[in-house]
Amino acid sequence: MEFIWDPLMVTAAMLLCSAVGYVILLLSRMGTKPRPNPEKNRTYACGEVLKPEELHPDSAGFFSPVKKVIKPFYRRVGGAHTGDLNRYLLWIAAGLLVLFVTVFLMEVVLGWAL
Amino acid sequence: MELNYAVAMMLVALGLYCVIAKRNLIKMIMGLSVLTDGIHLFLISLGYRAGGTAPIVAGEMISDLQGFASRAVDPIPQALVLTSIVINVCILALALSLAVHIYRNYGTLKPSEIRRLRE
Amino acid sequence: MIPHSPILAIVLPLLGGFLSPVIGILERKHGWRRATGIFALIVMGVVCVVVGSMVTDVWAGQFIIYELGGWSPPWGINLAVDALGAQMALMIAGLGILVVLYSLSYMRDETGLGQFYALLLIVIAGMMGTVLTGDMFNFYVFLEIMSVGSYALVAFRRTPEGIEGGIKYLFIGSIGTTSILISIAMLYGLVGSLNIADIGAKLTLYSGNVPPALTLAFALFVTGVMVKVAMVPFHTWLPDALTGAPTVVSALLAGPAAVVGIYWVARLPYLPFGMPVGVILVSLGLLSMVVGVLMALVQRDFKRMLAYHVISQKGYMVLGIGLGTFGSVLGAQGGLFHLLNHSTYKCLLFMCAGAVLLQANSQKFDELGGLGKKMPVTAAMFLVGSLAISGIPPMNGFVSKYCIYLSGLELGQGWITAIAVVVSALTLASFLKAFSSVFLGQLPGRLEGVREAPRPMLISMAIMAAVCVAIGLLPAIGFNIVGPAQAAAENSVGYITHVFGENYLAAGGMMP
Questions:
Q1: Is a pLDDT exceeding 60 seen at residue A114?
Q2: Which of C308, C173, C163 has the alpha carbon at shortest distance from B114?
């Protein structure tokens, strides 16, 4: 397949489109000026009072929808990363065994050569 | 010399077992040392020739180099093993000093309790 | 070419490493500031000049062979530099000097710098040796030099996380290099030689019926290389080591140390074994890509997330090289090009994380926020790096990922391209979270006094970001480097002919 990619044209196109978008933003700001007041700037939290420090998104729960969709993966693979050194070394031994069996089957039994 | 190879493979297997199954860092380090000793025995046995002489050319052997080469033991594995022993002494020293620091910081040498960095 | 430049490129950092503690003692006695850092910078500058002269000669078509001590192969050790080795040496030298420049200001308040720069320069010497050598056991020795130096560097500050990361890296890395040693021992027993070209020539005699011992040697060698490249399931040392280490060491391990692993992955299907490994590479690459990015989505720690992304991006490279063995030239070029790009933007990302850690004293997402106003240059660099790693044009990551996507379609396996695109999207998602958690949002009260990072760090980051954008806008720069490298990797016959002469391969590897 041909590697068809003209970066200068694409970059020029991106910059042109961003410039057009910025011009539209400036025009809209000329139309209606922003009028901030403290009431508007406060974060709406369904009637609760929040301090700015508490507004940080929880870093582990940020992708909870993704986690829920692929829950079996996280239970198995995430649970397998226990932090226990002996278990990690067992994975390496198991991986070596799997690799040896794979190469043996491919080379000797099926006769694939490069 | 089949016995050499059998013992070397047994050492490698025992060392691997110690590293995987023992629950104490010092025992795991000992297993690593046994593992590399097995490999060194394997390497040295590769160059062995039954009834051979040491591969050092002295005065009277220069006249008969062909005969000397057919009687001497292979010197290359000896050089490889010397280098490898030095490397493994380095790793052993580093591992033991790290184990001392772990004991000071964590109070234990069991890998199942040295798990602050998990998942 | 400067005479003796292959061996100078290895020996100069080694010598500099041994002189660093002396400079450290002099620095303490006379009260000079940053003397060891500037000494390391000078050494790396000279190495860059030497490597540059060597590389321009290789790209002009010459295959450099340097025989150590005048002994000709296979009785002596020789250094063989073809286009693949040239690319790797260039990357190690370039990234090395930028990391040393970064460390000048990162380590300004720390003591014991004589030992730190000694270990750093020795690690760089080991990396140079691994990619320039033409002898198997020499490769093992330089690999151990690089590994043992980095075990010590990871645990350098003796923090609990550093030591824990260091000992886990030590055990897993040692098992990897030990399996490489067993493999070399078995190869010596089978073939009787240690020279890579010689083993390649002599193993062609076995191409019909392969003895099981050779299969076991090959499997052990592949395992050892995969441990070094941190593919799943051999990857467990990488997140722990990169989280606990000082950021300079993390940047060093994520950038140049990846070069060594991928150099051997690129040589695996061709020299010295000629055995089929394409299926293994493709499957391990796909597995690492997916597992790396999915584990990175749920991390709380900045550097740990970047470490899982290293695993994912290395999966791309191994996938590309694996697709190359099935006949797709674009795939192998994409894999090597991705290595070139990955080292630049990954070092850049780690340097940004280090700048944030230095100024705000924290590397967890929950404790950071709103630093975009206080550290605008760092935020801009992080944005460039995030766009590059996600494969968004006009950055360089897009070009190499596009090559890998195209090669998947070229071979008719559209599902590989689909998985690669989904992984890119998840990478972008995870970096959106990182950028917004650290640089956007509200500034916590205790981070009010945070200022911009010091100047040398910003210079390093700016150079890397400029390289990212430059390669993205003019991909011909990258293809000029990577095209000859990929051709040289596949050309095992050419390698053997250059080292030994015309009739060696035909004579079955016997000297006349």
A1: no
A2: C163
d(CA A96, CA C176): 10
Contacts of B119 in chain A (CB under 8 A): 78, 81, 83
- Asked if the peptide bond before residue A7 counts as cis, ω within 30 degrees of 0, the response is no
Identify residue A6 by its one-letter amino acid code. D
Contacts of A76 in chain C (CB under 8 A): none
Query: Which of A 66-85 lie inside 8 A of B, CB atoms?
Result: 78, 81-85
Contact state of C366 with A67 under an 8 Å Cβ cutoff: no
Q: Which residues pair with C301 in a beta bridge?
A: C364
How close B98 comes to chain C (CA, Å)? 7
Q: Does residue A114 contact residue C275 with C-beta atoms inside 8 Å? A: yes
Interface ipTM: 0.94
Tokens of C362: 């924290």
**Tokens in use for A27?**
């025009």
What phi and psi values does residue C501 have, to the nearest 5 degrees?
A: 105, 175
Tokens of C389: 């790693």
Q: How many CB pairs under 8 A join A and B?
A: 29
Q: Tell me: the pLDDT tens digits for A22-67? A: 999 999 888 888 788 777 766 666 777 776 666 677 777 788 888 8
| Cis omega (within 30 of 0) for bond into C272 | yes
Predicted confidence at residue C124, as pLDDT, reads: 95
- Concatenating the DSSP letter of every residue in C76-105 gives S-EEEE-HHHHHHHHHHHHHHHHHHHHHHH
* Beta bridge partners of residue C64, listed in sequence order: C81
Using an 8 Å Cβ cutoff, are C392 and C469 in contact? no
Pick one of 3.90.1200.10, 1.10.150.20, 3.40.50.720, 1.10.287.3510 as the CATH number of B2-52+65-113: 1.10.287.3510
Q: Where are the alpha helices (DSSP H) in C440-511?
A: 455-473, 475-490, 492-500
Strands C64-67 and C78-81 come out as: antiparallel
pLDDT attached to residue C131: 93
Q: What angle do CA C453, C459, C461 make, to 5 degrees?
A: 80
What confidence score (pLDDT) does residue A1 get? 62
pTM of the model: 0.92
In sequence order, which residues have a C-beta less than 8 Å from that of residue C380 and are 6 or more positions away? none
Residue A67: both structure tokens together: 């986690």
C124 touches C265 (CB < 8 A): no
Q: In this complex, do A93 and B119 lie within 8 Å of one another by their Cβ atoms?
A: no
Structure tokens at C81: 């530099």
Kindly give the parts of chain B with pLDDT less than 50: none
Residue of A nearest to C429 (CA): A63
C331/C317 Cα distance (integer angstroms): 9
- What are the structural domain ranges in chain C? 279-473
